[in-house]
């Protein structure tokens, strides 16, 4: 009883506790539901006409696309390709579902057959498509690799989608035709002709500087043409680059190190305990080893003609004696030191025939090759002896040759240039004479070569070049880092533009960066910068340093442009010329008092021009350009009638029609109707999908789910 009394006394307290518990339960449910909604949002990349594209499936396709597209393709590029494919598929599927389009098993097999008919792995011995091989291939994928099988399913779906899309497009095309009435209109637009005399008062006759356009007028124009100026959310930035580029001192240091290689050097030998003299580039005989030990570019063991040499080398070394040196000189991002090491006289092209004797392990070997290298050399020497003794036997020896392509031409390799062959083959055919026969070993095997012909010989030279890439020194790289850091600190609490100007740094503005954009003008691929600008924690005026290839970029977020109407500043480039034209047209019309061509020409100091055979199909006026409004107005006048002032695309006009030539009446307009129908069909190919896409409901969550 005492307990019950206490409960009654504290009833209000208990009610509050129960209420709080219930409230907590409700809140818990809300948070859990909210979490579920959030998780759902994070797992759905997009919703297109009610169809959800899951994040997992989308990223799997992006990964596969990136592998298919190869190296150098960024994740964003692969993602955009998959996005376009997914949107197209979803948009078109909504149409197929409405119409009841499907791809049945037999049709799917036909589509696969037509697509894969040329693939050798699905062909039988007769070269025909074998469905059993396809079934075996699919079964093997399913049994061995879940990922590969899924990729095959994706491939089948893409084939099916292509088939349905073609059926859909053909169905739409079948519904568009050109009627006889349309054919008649087409004929008349093309063949009704007028000749005119006209005076043009060009807009350029009024200076832009005299026509003021206010921001409020631009704003009003934007509001009156909202559809033209709808934009997605975007960001504007300013940035300053700090590039790790070699300084003049760095170049001088590299040039000095190259010059130092010319002279002999003395090096202490730890083994012999004596000083050894190392020959410098000027005296060394083994130029290849010396170059390869000291150069960023390997020795080029080729002769070249004067025409193939850079102009500075051609002028400085070609006619010099062997051992002459030129440099250091600057060339394509390198400092170089070049030496003339050999010269010869040779043709610029040759013609030869050969017999290729491969050996086991050579590139020319096949499954039937059994000769060892020693045996192949012995065979080649024997063939050479026979051919030298009796050249007519060359063709008889082709049965021994592994080069089946040249065998069909009696072993002949038609005219080829110096660099067309492997080095050993090249050297023999260009450094010997017409009629010579010899054996040469290459990676392909042993060649018995007969030189059939050569062009006239001219001087060629071999040049050894030591090249050092022009790169910034550690001191320069450190200075760039310090300069970037100082600037970053300075602009944290000072004006970005002012500090840049004070330090003579170039500020580069970039406007209209969109959330899924990858490239930034001047900085190439920089997703990290784009993501930072759209981060909710980043405010206008914030500055951040980013690592970029070969340096740093100090970036300032200059503006956040929300989705909706384009700002006055961004729209000015589009709107300003239009409003100026409107104002110039009003000025011209207000000041003109003339009512005839002669009076207008005199009053505005213009000439009277003529234009013949104008038609509505191509409304272009000679001497004035494309002017559909003016041409249309001319067709509204009678012969001999003069128009009032008309505002065109390029000025204000007055037109007098001098001749009207109606199109001839035809008995039948079917040919023109057919042309109209074809024009409509062509538009189906180019415009159908875009029209369906514009009419679709697309909720794009990529920025929140996969970026």
UniProtKB/TrEMBL annotation:
<protein>
    <recommendedName>
        <fullName>Periplasmic chaperone PpiD</fullName>
    </recommendedName>
</protein>
<feature type="domain" description="PpiC">
    <location>
        <begin position="347"/>
        <end position="453"/>
    </location>
</feature>
<dbReference type="Pfam" id="PF13145">
    <property type="entry name" value="Rotamase_2"/>
</dbReference>
<dbReference type="InterPro" id="IPR027304">
    <property type="entry name" value="Trigger_fact/SurA_dom_sf"/>
</dbReference>
<dbReference type="InterPro" id="IPR046357">
    <property type="entry name" value="PPIase_dom_sf"/>
</dbReference>
<comment type="similarity">
    <text>Belongs to the PpiD chaperone family.</text>
</comment>
<dbReference type="Pfam" id="PF13623">
    <property type="entry name" value="SurA_N_2"/>
</dbReference>
<keyword id="KW-0143">Chaperone</keyword>
<keyword id="KW-0472">Membrane</keyword>
<dbReference type="GO" id="GO:0003755">
    <property type="term" value="F:peptidyl-prolyl cis-trans isomerase activity"/>
</dbReference>
<keyword id="KW-0997">Cell inner membrane</keyword>
<dbReference type="GO" id="GO:0005886">
    <property type="term" value="C:plasma membrane"/>
</dbReference>
<keyword id="KW-0812">Transmembrane</keyword>
<dbReference type="InterPro" id="IPR000297">
    <property type="entry name" value="PPIase_PpiC"/>
</dbReference>
<keyword id="KW-0697">Rotamase</keyword>
<dbReference type="Pfam" id="PF13616">
    <property type="entry name" value="Rotamase_3"/>
</dbReference>
<keyword id="KW-0413">Isomerase</keyword>
<keyword id="KW-1003">Cell membrane</keyword>
<dbReference type="InterPro" id="IPR052029">
    <property type="entry name" value="PpiD_chaperone"/>
</dbReference>
<keyword id="KW-1133">Transmembrane helix</keyword>
